[in-house]
C-alpha cells in the first residue's frame, strides 16, 4: 500500500471511530468499521527463522506495528533442528490459530493447500493492486491450481558460482568463466596452484544444486518445471544428459575424491572457497553473501564475487534457478484484515526496505534497489531477465526430494552410464508411486 | 589398597582423562578464539588470540537469566518426581506380590526404547485440549513419565541385593508394606536414588525436543541457545558458549553429588558375599 | 549375582498365610498405592502416545493429510524395504559395538580407579564430563575432529605423525563413517559405566582385600574372584542403560552424518526420523517404531522374567 493510500485509511478510521463514539452506538461503529476498517487486534505469525534472518523478520514486524499501531504481532516462535517443516506441521496439526506462515518450500505449500490450511489471496491481490508490485512470473510461482497462495518477500539466485578474486588471479584465471570451456579450462590451472577447483558439498543436500543448474543449462527452466511436476520422466534423456555433463566436470578432475565430497557440507564448502582460499568455486544461494561479509569480513565485488553458471550454448544460458521465502495466510487465522495488511506492507517500499537493509533481496517492484550491495545487485539484474524456476529439490514431494538427494550421492560414487541408468530408473519408480 | 605404592594408577588414568577431554578443550577454545582464526581448526596455534566477544554477545543478546530459571524449575520438578516415584515403584516390584506385576514391569522397562519423536504429536494434541501448552507441566509430565523405564530398573536392581533380613524383621515387628518401604527401604536406598536423581537431572537439563515444541514464553536454556545457530550461520563460537553454559550446571551437580554413587557403600556392606 | 531365594520373601504359592486384613497391610493394596502415581504419569506420557502410534502404523498417513486404514501393508513394505533392512543390521552392529566399547572402557577404568579412589577422583569427573554434554553439542565437537582435509583434528594428527596416507574424509567415507560415529558416541557414554561399576566395587569391604593379600592371593585372582563378581550390579545397570541408550541414539547421528553417506550410517532410530520427519510418511515411520519396540520387547522379556523369578 502506498503512503497516500494508508494516510487516507488512517483518517477514515479516526472519523469512523469519532462518529462511533459520539453516537455511542456499537452497531454504527461496526458498519463503518467494516466498510473502512484499518486492521487492529492480534496478528499471529509462525516464525521459525533463526539468526540474522530472524532479526530481519522481527525488524519488519516492528516496522509493521509502527505503521499499524492498533495491531499487535504475536509470534509463535518455532525452534527446530533438521527440517523446520516437522515443527511447523506439529504446530498446525495441534490446532494452533495462526494468521501468517513463513514458507520456503513450494511442495509444502502444495501439501498445506491440499489440506485446506491456506487461504487463497486472489481477492486481496486485486483489492490491494499487487500487480503493481509483483511481476506475473512471481504471481505464477505463488499460484496453485489457479489461485494465489504465496506472497514472496525475499528471493535469491541459486545458479551462481561463488569465488574468491585472489584465488582465481593467483592461478592465472583472469576473468571468472563465462563458458563451459572456460570452466573446464580453469580446473587444471587452479589445481596446479594447489586449489581444489570445484567444491561439491555432497553431505546432505547442496550437491543437488549442481545437477539442477546443469539441468537448466542443458534443457532449460521449463524442463525443470516439468520434471518437478513429473511431466517428464526421471529416466528420460534430459535427466541423463545433465548427469553426463556433470560427469564431464568430474572427468576434468574438478573435484576432490568421493569421500571428501560426501563429507563436505555447504558451510565447509563456503569456508574452503571464501575463507581458506583452498577451493575455486562452489554453487550456492545468496545467504553466502551475508556470511562472506559478516563472518569472513570480505568486501563484495573486490574480495569475492558471484558469477552465473557458465553458458553451455544450448539456448538456456540465461535461465536461472531461484529460491524464495513467502508469506502464506492460514485459514484458522482470526484476523484476515491484519494478515492482508501485513502482506501488503511486505511489498511496500517501506516494508521491502527493511529486508533490503538486512541484505535480503525483495521481489517487489517498490523496493529501493540502491539499498543492495554490488553482489546482490548483479545477481538481481541477471534473475530479472532470466526465465526463473524454483529450486527443484524444494518443489519435489518430500519423499522424492529425499530420495533424489540420496541418488545423486550414488551418482557421485559411480558416475558411469550404467549407474546413471540405475539412478534415474530408481527415481522414476519412486516418482510413479507419488504422482 | 592405595597404600601399596600404586603411583602409576593416577598417572595412567590422568593421562587417559586428559586425552578424553580434548574435545571439551576444543569446545572451550572455540568459544574463546575469534571464529576467523579457527576455520582451519581450534588447535592451530598460529594466529593465537583469545577474546570474550562470543561470551559477551551471547550474554547481551539472549535472556539467559530467565532461561536459566526455567531450566532449573523444569529440571528440579522432573527430577524430584522421578526420585520420589521410582523407588516406590521399584520397591513394589521387588518386594510385593500383586496381580499384573510382571506384565507391568515388562511394559515399563521396554518403554525405554520409545523414541521421543513418537510422543510429540499425541501429547501436543493432549496438551492443547487440556490447555497445558506453554506450561512447564507439558514437559515435566513426559519427562517423569518416560524416566520410569530406566529409573525403576535402576532402583530395583539395587534392591535385589537389599538385605532381606531387614524386611523380614520389619514384618515380624508388625510393619505394614508401606511402613516397611518408608522406614526400612527408603533410608537405606539413598545411593540408587541419588544416582537416579543425577541422571535424570542431566537428561532433563539437556533435553531440547519437547521444550522446543511445547514451551513458548518461558523456554529453557537448551531451546534458547538452539536459536543461537541461525539456519544459514552456524555461529560456532557462540554455540560453544551456549554449550559450556548449559553443561556447567549438570557438571556442578555431578561433582557435588557424585560421592553418593559411592557413599552408599558403607551402608550396605552387610548382606554381601 | 543371584540373591539368595531361600531366606527372602516366599515365592508364589508359598505365602498362603498372608491375608489382606486391611488396606495398608495387603500387599496388593500397598503395591497399587505405591504404583498409582507412577502408572498415571506413565499412561499419559507413554501408553497413550504408544497406542496412538500403533493405530497410526496401520494407516497411510503422509504429511498432514488424514490417513486411511490400510491394514498391515506398512509392515509388509517395511520388510521388503532394503533401506529398512540395512538400518536393522546397522542398528545391531551399532548397539553392540557402542555398548561393548563404552561399558568395556568404563568398567576397566572403574577397576583401575578403585585401586586409588582418592587420587583418581578428579579424573573420574573428567571422564564423566562428556556424559553431561548435550549430544548435539558433542556432535558439533566431533564434527570438527573428523572434518575432511587438514582442518580436521584427526587428519592433522595423522599428517603430523607422518601417516598422511591415513587421512580421509572420515564421515564421508563409506568404510569409516560408521566406525567414527560409534567411537564418538561411545565417548559420550563411558561416564555412566565408570560411575556405576566404581560404586559397586567400592562396596567390597576392604577387609576382604586385605585378607586376600595376606593370604598371598595374586592380583589376577583377586581380580577374578573378588572384583569381577562384585562389580556385577553396577555392570548390569550400565549395560542395561547403555544398551537402550544406544538403541535410541539419534542426535549424534543426526549431527555427524545425517545417516549418510548414502544412508550407510542409518540406524532404525534414524530411519524412523527420516521416514516420518523428512519424508513425512508418518504411518510408515510409526510402523518402523512398532517393529523396533517389538524386537526389544521380545529380546528383553526372557531376561525380565528370569530376573523377577530370581529376585523373589
Task: Please name the CATH architecture of the largest domain in chain A.
Answer: 3-Layer(aba) Sandwich
Structural class of chain B: mainly alpha
Number of separate structural domains of chain B = 2
pLDDT averaged residue by residue of chain B? 82
**If helices are DSSP runs of H or I spanning 4 or more residues, what is the number of helices of chain A?**
21
- Helical fraction of chain B: over 70%
From the alpha carbons, calculate the radius of gyration of chain A and give it in angstroms: 24 Å
Poorly predicted segments of chain B: 263-273
Number of domains of chain A: 2
CATH topological fold name of the largest domain in chain A = D-Maltodextrin-Binding Protein, domain 2
Reading off the top of the CATH hierarchy, the class of the largest domain in chain A is best stated as: Alpha Beta
Structural class of chain A: alpha/beta
β-strand percent of chain B reads under 5%
Task: Describe the structure in your own words.
The complex is a heterotrimer of chains A (435), B (273) and C (312). Chain A is of the alpha/beta class and 435 residues long. Chain A has 21 helices and 12 strands. Chain A has helices at residues 3-23, 26-36, 51-67, 84-93, 106-114, 122-128, 136-141, 165-170, 180-192, 208-219, 221-228, 237-251, 258-262, 266-275, 287-295, 336-347, 349-357, 374-385, 392-395, 398-413, 417-434, and strands at 41-47, 71-77, 100-103, 143-144, 147-148, 150-157, 160-164, 196-198, 279-283, 304-308, 320-329, 388-390. Chain A starts with a helix and ends with a helix. Chain B has helices at residues 8-20, 22-32, 53-61, 64-95, 101-110, 116-130, 137-159, 164-172, 177-188, 190-206, 209-214, 221-226, 236-257, 259-267. The longest helix of chain B has 32 residues, at 64-95. Chain B is an all-alpha fold and 273 residues long. With 312 residues, chain C is mainly α. Chain C is 68% helix and 0% strand. The model of chain C is unreliable at 1-24 (pLDDT under 50). The chains are: A alpha/beta (435), B mainly alpha (273), C mainly alpha (312). Chains in contact: A-B, A-C, B-C. The interface between A and C is medium-sized, with 37 and 32 residues.
Amino acid at each position: 500500500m502506498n503512503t497516500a493510500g494508508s494516510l487516507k485509511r488512517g483518517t477514515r478510521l479516526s472519523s469512523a471511530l469519532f462518529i462511533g463514539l459520539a453516537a455511542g452506538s456499537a452497531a454504527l461503529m461496526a458498519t463503518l468499521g467494516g466498510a473502512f476498517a484499518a486492521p487492529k487486534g492480534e496478528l499471529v505469525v509462525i516464525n521459525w527463522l533463526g539468526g540474522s534472518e530472524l532479526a530481519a523478520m522481527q525488524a519488519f514486524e516492528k516496522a509493521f506495528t509502527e505503521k499499524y499501531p492498533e495491531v499487535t504481532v504475536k509470534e509463535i516462535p518455532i525452534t527446530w533442528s533438521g527440517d523446520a517443516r516437522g515443527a511447523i506441521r506439529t504446530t498446525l496439526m495441534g490446532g494452533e490459530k495462526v494468521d501468517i506462515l513463513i514458507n520456503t518450500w513450494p511442495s509444502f505449500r502444495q501439501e498445506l493447500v491440499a489440506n485446506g490450511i491456506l487461504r487463497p489471496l486472489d481477492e486481496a491481490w486485486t483489492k490491494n493492486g499487487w500487480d503493481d508490485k509483483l511481476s506475473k512470473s512471481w504471481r505464477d510461482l505463488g499460484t496453485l491450481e489457479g489461485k494465489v497462495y504465496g506472497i514472496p518477500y525475499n528471493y535469491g539466485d541459486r545458479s551462481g558460482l561463488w569465488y574468491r578474486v585472489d584465488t582465481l588471479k593467483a592461478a592465472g584465471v583472469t576473468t571468472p568463466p563465462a563458458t563451459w570451456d572456460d570452466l573446464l579450462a580453469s580446473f587444471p590451472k587452479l589445481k596446479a596452484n594447489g586449489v581444489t577447483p570445484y567444491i561439491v558439498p555432497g553431505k546432505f543436500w547442496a550437491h543437488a544444486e549442481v545437477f539442477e543448474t546443469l539441468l537448466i543449462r542443458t534443457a532449460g527452466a521449463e524442463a525443470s518445471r516439468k520434471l518437478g511436476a513429473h511431466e517428464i520422466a526421471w529416466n528420460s534423456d534430459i535427466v541423463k544428459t545433465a548427469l553426463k555433463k556433470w560427469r564431464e566436470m568430474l572427468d576434468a578432475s574438478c573435484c576432490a575424491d568421493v569421500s571428501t565430497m560426501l563429507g563436505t557440507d555447504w558451510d565447509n564448502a563456503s569456508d574452503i572457497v571464501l575463507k581458506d582460499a583452498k577451493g575455486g568455486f562452489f554453487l550456492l544461494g545468496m545467504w553466502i553473501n551475508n556470511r562472506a561479509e559478516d563472518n569472513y569480513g570480505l568486501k563484495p565485488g573486490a574480495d569475492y564475487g558471484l558469477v552465473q553458471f557458465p553458458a553451455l550454448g544450448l539456448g538456456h544460458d540465461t535461465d536461472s534457478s531461484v529460491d524464495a521465502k513467502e508469506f502464506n495466510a492460514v485459514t484458522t487465522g482470526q484476523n484476515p484484515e491484519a494478515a492482508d495488511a501485513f502482506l501488503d506492507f511486505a511489498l511496500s517500499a517501506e516494508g521491502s526496505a527493511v529486508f533490503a537493509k538486512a541484505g535480503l533481496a525483495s521481489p517487489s517492484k517498490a523496493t529501493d534497489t540502491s539499498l543492495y550491495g554490488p553482489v546482490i545487485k548483479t545477481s538481481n539484474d541477471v534473475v530479472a531477465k532470466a526465465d526463473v524456476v524454483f529450486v527443484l529439490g524444494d518443489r519435489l514431494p518430500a519423499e522424492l526430494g529425499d530420495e533424489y538427494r540420496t541418488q545423486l550421492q550414488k551418482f557421485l560414487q559411480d558416475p558411469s552410464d550404467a549407474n546413471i541408468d540405475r539412478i534415474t530408473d530408481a527415481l522414476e519408480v519412486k516418482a510413479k508411486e507419488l504422482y | 589398597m592405595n597404600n601399596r605404592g600404586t603411583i602409576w594408577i593416577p598417572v595412567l588414568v590422568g593421562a587417559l582423562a586428559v586425552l578424553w577431554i580434548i574435545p571439551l578443550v576444543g569446545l572451550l577454545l572455540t568459544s574463546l578464539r575469534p571464529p576467523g582464526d579457527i576455520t582451519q581448526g581450534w588447535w592451530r596455534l598460529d594466529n593465537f588470540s583469545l577474546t570474550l566477544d562470543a561470551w559477551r554477545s551471547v550474554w547481551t543478546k539472549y535472556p539467559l537469566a530467565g532461561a536459566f530459571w526455567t531450566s532449573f524449575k523444569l529440571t528440579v520438578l522432573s527430577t524430584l518426581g522421578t526420585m520420589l516415584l521410582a523407588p516406590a515403584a521399584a520397591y513394589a516390584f521387588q518386594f510385593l506380590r500383586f496381580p499384573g506385576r510382571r506384565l507391568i514391569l515388562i511394559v515399563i522397562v521396554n518403554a525405554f526404547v520409545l523414541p521421543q519423536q513418537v510422543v510429540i504429536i499425541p501429547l501436543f494434541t493432549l496438551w492443547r485440549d487440556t490447555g497445558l501448552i506453554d506450561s512447564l507441566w507439558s514437559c515435566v509430565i513426559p519427562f517423569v513419565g518416560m524416566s520410569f523405564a530406566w529409573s525403576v530398573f535402576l532402583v530395583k536392581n539395587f534392591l535385589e541385593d537389599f538385605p532381606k533380613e531387614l524386611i523380614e524383621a520389619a514384618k515380624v515387628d508388625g510393619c505394614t508394606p508401606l511402613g516397611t518401604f518408608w522406614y526400612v527401604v527408603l533410608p537405606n536406598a539413598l545411593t540408587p536414588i541419588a544416582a537416579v536423581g543425577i541422571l535424570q537431572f542431566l537428561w532433563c537439563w539437556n533435553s531440547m525436543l519437547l521444550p522446543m515444541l511445547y514451551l513458548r514464553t518461558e523456554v529453557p536454556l537448551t531451546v534458547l541457545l538452539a536459536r543461537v545457530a541461525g539456519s544459514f550461520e552456524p555461529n560456532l563460537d557462540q554455540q560453544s558458549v551456549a554449550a559450556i553454559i548449559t553443561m556447567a550446571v549438570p557438571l556442578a551437580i555431578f561433582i557435588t553429588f557424585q560421592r553418593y554413587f559411592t557413599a552408599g557403600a558403607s551402608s550396605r556392606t552387610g548382606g554381601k558375599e | 549375582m543371584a540373591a539368595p531365594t531361600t531366606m527372602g520373601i516366599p515365592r508364589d504359592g508359598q505365602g498362603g498365610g498372608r491375608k489382606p486384613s486391611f488396606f495398608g497391610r495387603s500387599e496388593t493394596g500397598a503395591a497399587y498405592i505405591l504404583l498409582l502415581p507412577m502408572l498415571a504419569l506413565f499412561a499419559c506420557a507413554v501408553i497413550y502416545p504408544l497406542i496412538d502410534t500403533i493405530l497410526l502404523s496401520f494407516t497411510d498417513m503422509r504429511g498432514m493429510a488424514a490417513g486411511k486404514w490400510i491394514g498391515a501393508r506398512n509392515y509388509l513394505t517395511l520388510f521388503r524395504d532394503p533401506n529398512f533392512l540395512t538400518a536393522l543390521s546397522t542398528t545391531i552392529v551399532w548397539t553392540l559395538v557402542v555398548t561393548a566399547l563404552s561399558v568395556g572402557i568404563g568398567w576397566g577404568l572403574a577397576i583401575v580407579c578403585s585401586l586409588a579412589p582418592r587420587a583418581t577422583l578428579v579424573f573420574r569427573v573428567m571422564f564423566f564430563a562428556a556424559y553431561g554434554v548435550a549430544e548435539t553439542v558433542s556432535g558439533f565437537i566431533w564434527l570438527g575432529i573428523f572434518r575432511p582435509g587438514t582442518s580436521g583434528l584427526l587428519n592433522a594428527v595423522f599428517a603430523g605423525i607422518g601417516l598422511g596416507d591415513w587421512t580421509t574424509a572420515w564421515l564421508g567415507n563409506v568404510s569409516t563413517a560408521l566406525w567414527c560415529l560409534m567411537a564418538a558416541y561411545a565417548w559420550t557414554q563411558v561416564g555412566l559405566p565408570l560411575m556405576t561399576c566404581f560404586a559397586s566395587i567400592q562396596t567390597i569391604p576392604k577387609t576382604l582385600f586385605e585378607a586376600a593379600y595376606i593370604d598371598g592371593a595374586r592380583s589376577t585372582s583377586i581380580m577374578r574372584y573378588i572384583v569381577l563378581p562384585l562389580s556385577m550390579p553396577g555392570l548390569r545397570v550400565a549395560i542395561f542403560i547403555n544398551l537402550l541408550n544406544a538403541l535410541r541414539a539419534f542426535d549424534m547421528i543426526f549431527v555427524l552424518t545425517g545417516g549418510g553417506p548414502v544412508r550407510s550410517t542409518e540406524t532404525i532410530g534414524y530411519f524412523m526420523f527420516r521416514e516420518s520427519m523428512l519424508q513425512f510418511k508418518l504411518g510408515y515411520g510409526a510402523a518402523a517404531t512398532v517393529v523396533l519396540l517389538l524386537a526389544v520387547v521380545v529380546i528383553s522379556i526372557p531376561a525380565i522374567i528370569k530376573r523377577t523369578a530370581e529376585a523373589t
